[in-house]
Write a structure and sequence with these properties.
Blueprint lengths: L10 H22 L3 E4 L2 E4 H24 L4 H19 L4 H23 L4 H6 L7 H28 L2 H22 L1 H6 L12
Antiparallel strand pairs: 1-2
Main location: membrane
Organism: Jannaschia donghaensis
Function: Plays a role in cell envelope biogenesis, maintenance of cell envelope integrity and membrane homeostasis.
Length: 207
């Protein structure tokens, strides 16, 4: 849903501010992953150093988005808060696991919100996207159910990757595989969207 109070901003600027920090985290990690830094007698690996830079970068870009557009989505705010908390814990405790758990928490939260709506017979997804994507009530319920389970699958996948595979694999998975999985999921729903699309009425009825 488009916020009527949002200020017009060139798409490339908004996209850069949204995906730029993630891209820089990916590049920074593979640049510094083999480096070790000593501060106050403690050793910090490249992952922790890049995380320490990533947290303020997320806050800066989120602040710029708010300054330029005059508005932020709840997802943008929650993501910034979660990155700050989990990334901050990773740096403070010198433990990269906290940042790796962040996607799991984020996707489980999204799934939980959607499931709560479904139990109440309501699609919270429709509340957000109904103006941009007109579907029948039945279509919204089906899409919401599928999206909720998809978020659960992403959360489980994140847990498997960070717990059993290397940090290099997890960084690549988080940067590329998760967005690709989201695109593939949305593309796979084309049949549902077509079957449950609302027909738009144009013009006024003629006698």
């Amino acid at each position: 849903m488009t916020d009527p109070d949002a200020k017009p901003v060139p798409g490339w600027i908004k996209t850069t501010l949204e995906i730029g920090p993630v891209a820089l985290f990916f590049l920074g990690y593979f640049w510094l992953k083999d480096e070790t830094y000593v501060l106050n007698g403690a050793e910090y690996g490249g992952f922790i150093v890049v995380t320490a830079l990533f947290v303020p970068l997320i806050l800066i870009t989120t602040g710029l988005l708010w300054w330029l557009t005059g508005t932020l989505s709840k997802m943008q705010v929650f993501t910034a808060v979660l990155v700050t908390v989990m990334g901050g814990l990773s740096v403070w405790l010198n433990d990269e696991r906290f940042l790796k758990i962040k996607p799991t928490l984020l996707y489980l939260l999204f799934a939980g919100i959607l499931f709560i709506g479904l139990m109440r017979g309501r699609s919270f997804l429709a509340d957000v996207l109904s103006e941009a994507l007109p579907l029948t009530p039945e279509g919204w319920m089906i899409l919401t159910r599928r999206m909720a389970w998809f978020f659960v699958i992403l959360a489980v996948a994140n847990e498997v990757v960070w717990r059993f595979l290397s940090t290099e694999v997890w960084v690549t998975f988080k940067t590329f595989d998760m967005p690709i999985a989201m695109f593939v999921f949305l593309f796979s729903q084309a049949g549902l969207l077509k079957a449950h699309a609302l027909e738009e009425t144009t013009g006024e009825a003629e006698d």
